[in-house]
């Protein structure tokens, strides 16, 4: 395996961490709960008949990395990155998760986490560990009006229907930023599949207080892209055993609320 210096991320069009307030697509929006087809989900997405009951080692490794990065716990992030790379994450996987972090926890924590990843990679290289670089996106990222169209389509597929409601009537620019940047620039990057991005997002939101509605919304989105309830419960178990019991309680409560809502209870 090769260890290469982290490549420059796409910084074009980055918006401030204030996206976090709108990114949840949650209770303030009138969102349907049923998923639609998703052409961009990669091979890790399973059909219902093939849905796995547990996360892969690589998927499980994302959980503490995303949680510690969102919480700003750099010391524990260091160990989680080491374990994640040992579990099969590529350098690209780790970078994509930590770049995506800024949309939920802000630029300071994203940049600090990326800096720690650089330190981990340098230390591993000095020990003779050659990490797999991973892939850059294959599909070109659209520009201009095509980016807005692609981001809107991704947002709709992830949410299960068009995203609309009083909040976006009040602040339509927030939804435009979501569509062009988060669901366009970031979710059009096909070197990290949508399941992995949602595992990271749920773990990030579970690490933060006061974002329960967004966390519940992303439990629904996670299941829309093929993650199963047992996998999401495993995510909470990983938070309990490797991160913080309170994070695990928030994740479990959000999943339970989503499942009750889906069952009409």
How would you describe the overall organization of this protein?
The chain has 265 residues and is mainly alpha-helical. 59% of the residues lie in helices and 0% in strands. The protein contains 12 helices and no strands. Helix 1 runs antiparallel to helix 2, helix 1 packs parallel to helix 9 (194-206) and helix 2 (74-86) packs across helix 5. Mean pLDDT is 86; it is low at 1-49.
Low-pLDDT parts are: 1-49
- H and E string: HHHHHHHHHHHH
The radius of gyration over CA amounts to 17 Å
Describe the sheet with the most strands.
none
* N- and C-termini, Cα separation: 50 Å
- What would the principal axes of the Cα set say about the shape? globular
List descriptors.
single chain, 265 residues, 12 helices, globular, disordered N terminus
SSE arrangement:
Blueprint: H1 57-71, H2 74-86, H3 91-100, H4 102-105, H5 107-126, H6 144-159, H7 166-170, H8 172-186, H9 194-206, H10 212-224, H11 229-243, H12 245-262
């Amino acid at each position: 395996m090769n260890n290469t210096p982290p490549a420059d991320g796409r910084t074009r069009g980055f918006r401030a961490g204030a996206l976090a307030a709108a990114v949840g697509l949650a209770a303030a929006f009138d969102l349907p709960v049923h998923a639609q087809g998703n052409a961009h989900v990669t091979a890790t997405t399973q059909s219902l008949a093939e849905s796995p009951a547990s996360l892969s080692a690589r998927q499980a490794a994302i959980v503490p990395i995303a949680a510690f990065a969102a919480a700003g716990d750099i010391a524990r992030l260091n160990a989680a990155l080491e374990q994640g790379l040992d579990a099969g994450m590529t350098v690209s996987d780790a970078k994509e998760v930590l770049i995506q972090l800024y949309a939920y926890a802000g630029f300071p924590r994203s940049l600090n986490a990326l800096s720690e990843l650089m330190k981990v990679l340098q230390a591993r290289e000095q020990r003779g560990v050659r990490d797999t670089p991973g892939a850059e996106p294959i599909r070109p990222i659209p520009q201009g009006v095509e980016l807005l169209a692609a981001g809107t389509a991704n947002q709709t597929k992830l949410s299960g229907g068009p995203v609309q409601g009083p909040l976006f009537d009040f602040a339509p620019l927030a939804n435009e930023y979501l569509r062009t940047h988060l669901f366009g620039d970031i979710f059009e990057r096909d070197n990290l599949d949508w399941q992995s991005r949602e595992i990271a997002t749920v773990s990030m939101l579970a690490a933060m207080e006061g974002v329960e509605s967004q966390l519940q919304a992303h439990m629904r989105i996670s299941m829309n892209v093929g993650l199963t309830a047992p996998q999401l419960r495993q995510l909470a178990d990983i938070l309990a055993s490797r991160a913080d019991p309170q994070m695990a309680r928030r994740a479990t409560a959000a999943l339970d609320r989503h499942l009750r809502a889906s069952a009409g209870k």
